[in-house]
Amino acid sequence: MTVAEQLRLEQAAYVAAVAGKLTDFLTTRQSVMSAISPDIDPLMGSISNLVTGGKRLRALMCYWGWRGAGGEAGADEVVTAGSALELFQAAALIHDDIIDRSDTRRGGPSVHRRFSELHGTQGWALDSERFGHAAAILTGDLCLSFSEEAFTEIGQSAAAGSRSRLIFNLMRAEVMAGQYLDILEEVAGPRRDRAGAVSRAQSIIRFKSAKYSTEHPLALGGALAGARDELLRGYSAFALPLGEAFQLRDDVLGVFGDPVTTGKPAGDDLREGKRTVLIAFALDLAGPAESAFIDAKLGSPGLGDADVDEIRRIIADCGALKATEVLIEDFGRAAFSALDLLPLDELPKTALRRLAEATVSRAA
Amino acid sequence: MTVAEQLRLEQAAYVAAVAGKLTDFLTTRQSVMSAISPDIDPLMGSISNLVTGGKRLRALMCYWGWRGAGGEAGADEVVTAGSALELFQAAALIHDDIIDRSDTRRGGPSVHRRFSELHGTQGWALDSERFGHAAAILTGDLCLSFSEEAFTEIGQSAAAGSRSRLIFNLMRAEVMAGQYLDILEEVAGPRRDRAGAVSRAQSIIRFKSAKYSTEHPLALGGALAGARDELLRGYSAFALPLGEAFQLRDDVLGVFGDPVTTGKPAGDDLREGKRTVLIAFALDLAGPAESAFIDAKLGSPGLGDADVDEIRRIIADCGALKATEVLIEDFGRAAFSALDLLPLDELPKTALRRLAEATVSRAA
């Protein structure tokens, strides 16, 4: 069997094991919740639906971090850890979509929209949108608790004080802090020093996305397998720039992506008012009138297609798109160089290279 | 030393130890968060502020459950468990206040209001209210994660699969389910079978409040101290009706309470549209015109003082207030009878009696 075949089989087995674990986990919770009331079913359904899809990027980073540090193929611990990461990701998405007022997620309605629609179709009293938000806050809380329950089920190697637990705790705190910095920049950014905008946007990316999507999951897998500090440092040198490239690509797709491929309406990031690195570059590089245009339009819920097109044109013409693509390349190069230096067997190294390639070149 | 003196000293020492533990816990997290950015300070400040106040009901139930089961006075484990419960309560309050659109908490602004006000005073861009809600969602998520971190620090006796862990997990899931049933009843209640409204409202109370405020914390303390199943059953027989009386009292205070004492504006529950047992009784017992009046007014954000007074009059005149007071007495009696049967030493038994008395007769 070639390395490529072994990789494909082992990765497919792991993804299937995580899916199975998530199904088992949610089935046992479903019976507890149904005993309270069948009215709870839509919360559980929303969680199941979210953890069924997705690219499993975090679980896979965790798996290959584990394998790279000598962990056994398909072991229970790393399947459970991957499930906990996927549940955490689902919880973060549910609340993130409320915060960003995103009505779509993976081509379907987001959780708060699902509940607003349920309210509408049932002809319930009071306000649909408010009910949707409230129900989604609670669904996210439940999912966040579930992710923790799943993480605890890893057992002794994730007990209090263990390196794995510290990584999981730090990951959660950092992503929440990063999300706050993100919404803060949306409102405070226009009043803050424009010269610092790119570096603020890069810091936000690091905390809300890069550490959480790639660096911490990889380190978590390594720590669970008992990796030495030196290997974990090497993992970070690879995964942090990879995560930064990943989020920069996400920001480019948020403005220029094809809605059919991304599953999100074109220009959604602009309507949300996200002050990404791409936008920070544009505000810096475009002329005063064009910068003022972007500043005025950013965060307008009613932003039309013509405005979106005009902002795209400015971003491309002023060189902001190019500057961001250069950054993505730089981060990508840094990640691949660090990967080359990692003392890993061929299988995990190939797997991480494939994951990294898919991450920096993705279109959705 | 009399039992009363010993009780006072031991309880004061425990409350101080929990406060000290919470301060230490948040101080270590503060340094992690400040390293990310000083902009995170308002999130940490909101959490500190919330866990500084309060009646510590849940921590105290946990403590006396522990002591009643033979746990050592002032032991680390039960101090840590109490801190985890207080952090969980703070997280629940932050999200609950967003969901209920409550602008005040303990006489001051609620967390989402604090962030909206920060937005206003700083003259930031876009919408104050939306920023407030988003920031409070993230603050609650952070606090929920902290409660879990604190719980894990209990160590081996709260490890995966332990009875304590199962109680903590069930508590979280039930309170989230109960809160969902609560908001569901606000919107779906008017369309549902009126005859079942009182029993639905009682079920909501049980899950969103009684189990979480008294039954589970007491059981958690007992389980940590290794209580046998029989004792835990006895604890439930006492604490569940006590918690039901506690929440029914809360519902009465939500309509009839003195704002100076409760720290919440008069009629807040009516404006929020809460379909409590008190309201369910009123809709059942009042005449058709008066029921229709309550139905029409419930959940109106602009509900004025005259409407609040009229709803109060209807609730009192139709016998709904009396019916609720009778229920509170019944639950209180059931709780005290069950307490008498508990095989506890004089100190924990006296402590639980005092807590129970304060709980059912409280004015705030």
From TrEMBL, chains A, B:
<dbReference type="GO" id="GO:0004311">
    <property type="term" value="F:geranylgeranyl diphosphate synthase activity"/>
</dbReference>
<keyword id="KW-0479">Metal-binding</keyword>
<dbReference type="InterPro" id="IPR000092">
    <property type="entry name" value="Polyprenyl_synt"/>
</dbReference>
<dbReference type="Pfam" id="PF00348">
    <property type="entry name" value="polyprenyl_synt"/>
</dbReference>
<dbReference type="InterPro" id="IPR008949">
    <property type="entry name" value="Isoprenoid_synthase_dom_sf"/>
</dbReference>
<keyword id="KW-0808">Transferase</keyword>
<keyword id="KW-0460">Magnesium</keyword>
<protein>
    <submittedName>
        <fullName>Geranylgeranyl diphosphate synthase type I</fullName>
        <ecNumber>2.5.1.1</ecNumber>
        <ecNumber>2.5.1.10</ecNumber>
        <ecNumber>2.5.1.29</ecNumber>
    </submittedName>
</protein>
<dbReference type="InterPro" id="IPR033749">
    <property type="entry name" value="Polyprenyl_synt_CS"/>
</dbReference>
<comment type="similarity">
    <text>Belongs to the FPP/GGPP synthase family.</text>
</comment>
<dbReference type="GO" id="GO:0004337">
    <property type="term" value="F:(2E,6E)-farnesyl diphosphate synthase activity"/>
</dbReference>
<dbReference type="GO" id="GO:0004161">
    <property type="term" value="F:dimethylallyltranstransferase activity"/>
</dbReference>
